[in-house]
Amino acid sequence: MRGKWLIVPLIALPLLIGGAWMWDRDWIYPYVALILPIDAEPAAAIPELVLEEKIALGDVKGRIDHLAIDLKRGRLFIAELANNTVGVVDLKNHRVETRLTGFAEPQGIAYVPGPDTLFIANAGDGTVSLRNGHDLSQIKEIALGDDADNIRLDGQDRVIVGHGSGALVVLDGASGEKLENISLAAHPESFQIDPRGSRIFVNEPKALKIAVVDRRSGNEIDSWGTAAAAANFPMAFDSAEQRLFVAYRLPALITAFDTQTGKLIDRRTTCGDADDVFHNKSRSRLYVICGDGSVAVLDVSKPELRELSRLRTRQGARTGLYVPDLDRLFVAVPMRDEQPAQVWVYKPSS
């Protein structure tokens, strides 16, 4: 184990010096994985997540990014980044209802129930597309500059989008009007909003930190991190216990921070190339979805993180969505070795 930690800085340094383009190369993670091997072997089936079905996505090639849900209509939205499309899955009939086109590398996606609007962030041209939730017709496009990425709902009437070389833009959930812009040190990956306060927790991997931003003032009020770890991409927030779970890729770690003090509570090895983390509050479980082809399930009922099992999926399946109202975990599985793209639906069972 000690040898791994000594190697981490040697890997991270050239990546940081090399610039932003190196973080997006498909060969980076497989190379690192050879040096920092995964500790646990995933299983085809685990008791914590039971596979219910596989929904075919049709002719979808390449990387799939984030997901969102319209609970009222039972529709799952899938940002099919490399395909420049958004898949719309009818969960009641277990099939693709339609496929929206005309996007430029869609990454972030969010459905806002009140105004009945779908927001889609495009990395390719830096725009956010607004679609009518009823018929999915286009309402408008908002230009942010470049690399529009993750989207989060801030209450019922505001939407926050991460973009560019370091910014969060706050949009009106109904009109899409730009309300404010929050500057950051580097491009934001996953971020979470504290519903009981004014803080936003932001992963800024190129700045090697987790930024804590006051959304009232727009100022950074703190920053956190953990030693000998880089590439912090996904995160999940446990508002009840005030814990922030952050997954790192270099090396593959899952960490827990006390958001009252900023102190690191615990850190454990996990699956590799994580891009989504979800907290199942009712079961005190954490799901880490990883591009190495696995999902790690952790017990987070105590301060110490404890991995229960690791589930085998498919190489490149790094994104998904846990929906508490349905108690289902959806994993986006890209096409690989002639196996078609699908959504795998899991029911938590323990």
How are the secondary structure elements laid out?
Blueprint: H1 2-18, H2 28-35, E1 49-56, E2 67-70, E3 75-80, E4 85-90, E5 95-100, E6 106-112, E7 117-122, E8 127-132, E9 138-143, E10 151-154, E11 158-163, E12 167-172, E13 178-183, E14 191-193, E15 199-204, E16 209-214, E17 219-224, E18 230-238, E19 243-250, E20 253-258, E21 264-269, E22 274-280, E23 285-290, E24 294-299, E25 306-312, E26 319-323, E27 328-333, E28 342-348
Antiparallel strand pairs: 1-28, 2-3, 3-4, 4-5, 6-7, 7-8, 8-9, 10-11, 11-12, 12-13, 14-15, 15-16, 16-17, 18-19, 19-20, 20-21, 22-23, 23-24, 24-25, 26-27, 27-28
Describe what this molecule looks like in 3D.
- The protein has 350 residues and is mainly beta.
- The protein folds into 2 domains: 1-62 and 223-350, Thrombin, subunit H (Beta Barrel); 67-149 and 151-188, YVTN repeat-like/Quinoprotein amine dehydrogenase (Methylamine Dehydrogenase, Chain H).
- It has helices at residues 2-18, 28-35, and strands at 49-56, 67-70, 75-80, 85-90, 95-100, 106-112, 117-122, 127-132, 138-143, 151-154, 158-163, 167-172, 178-183, 191-193, 199-204, 209-214, 219-224, 230-238, 243-250, 253-258, 264-269, 274-280, 285-290, 294-299, 306-312, 319-323, 328-333, 342-348.
- Strands 1-28-27-26 form a 4-stranded antiparallel β-sheet, with no helix packed on it. A 4-stranded antiparallel β-sheet has the order 2-3-4-5, with no helix packed on it.
- Strand 2 and strand 3 (75-80) form a beta hairpin.
